[in-house]
Amino acid sequence: MTPFIAHLLPAAALGLCVAIPFGPIGLMCVQRTLAFGIRFGIASGMGAATAHGMFSCLATMSGTVLTQMTLALHTPLRIAGGIVLILMGLRTILVSTGAAHGWTCGDATCGDLLSAYTSTLLIAAANPMTILPYLGVTSALETGEPLIMDRALATPIGVMLGSASWYLFLALSTNTMFRSLQKAALDRFNRLTGILLMALGASLCARIV
Questions:
Q1: Contact present, 167 and 29 (Cβ < 8 Å)
Q2: Residue 31 pLDDT level (bands cut at 50, 70, 90)
Q3: CA-based angle 40:94:176, to the nearest 5?
Q4: Non-local CB neighbours of 162 within 8 Å, separated by 6+ positions
Q5: How far apart are CA 42 and CA 113, in angstroms?
Q6: For 39-72, how does the pLDDT look when each residue is reduced to its tens digit (9 = 90+)?
Q7: Whose CB has fewer CB within 10 Å in the chain, the N or C terminal residue?
Q8: Is 85 within 8 Å of 194 (Cβ atoms)?
Q9: CA-to-CA distance for 31 and 190, rounded, in angstroms?
Q10: Type and span of the H or E element at 28
């Protein structure tokens, strides 16, 4: 086994384990898959996977400095993430699903998919909790171990692959099991999703006070 693969596989396992716990990103991935189609669900998941890869890269290259920055920015990041989740939840409740339910995969434009990708990237990046597992692994590395190129490249790539594999599975399984939902059921699910997203956002903001 090459050194690159030796670092890639544990990083992929870490990215998968961090992505699996169901939270706002998983909820948005499921909701968008049902409301707009599988392309939107996958694009949303890839945005979160990119954020995970970015965090793992930063943690690997400058764990100590990044820890201090994360602690310093903890409050504004939580507030920003909470506000974004509240707005996303409100939008999910208010926007009608009538037109979305009739979409086909071919209706998705590059701009729409980019918007889905960017929104989850920003939400995941605004959550300071996302980086903690990667900081923990970095701090557990042997003190003084040099940052070799194989590890510097393999860690973020592996984390992105592991995280992306989970969101891909989530979108595919959601599309397979629930794609025949009627509009009334989809409307109820959208309202429930919006309420949950708003509650999660309010919870993030409430922890500050």
A1: yes
A2: confident
A3: 35
A4: 11, 12, 13, 14, 15, 16, 17, 19
A5: 9
A6: 999 999 999 999 998 888 877 776 555 556 665 6
A7: C
A8: no
A9: 7
A10: helix 24-36
